[in-house]
Input
Amino acid sequence: MSLSPTFGLRAQHLGLGQAVVGFVMDRIVHPLEIVAARRALRAELDGLDHRELRDLGINEAAVDGFVSTWRPSRTR
Output
């Protein structure tokens, strides 16, 4: 442990920085990842015909609702 009087201040700033990074990740980065994943899902579902959608259990008229409520699972 350092005997420097600024050691404690430095540790507090690291905590604040981590809090800011966490806030940015939760409020900006993760929502943008979800939007990108939903766009990719929508593009993939648009390429399927009505029979393939029915095999997946998705009605053609309900594709928008399915995509808007879908959330990707986090694998991390």
About this structure: The two ends are 33 Å apart (CA to CA).
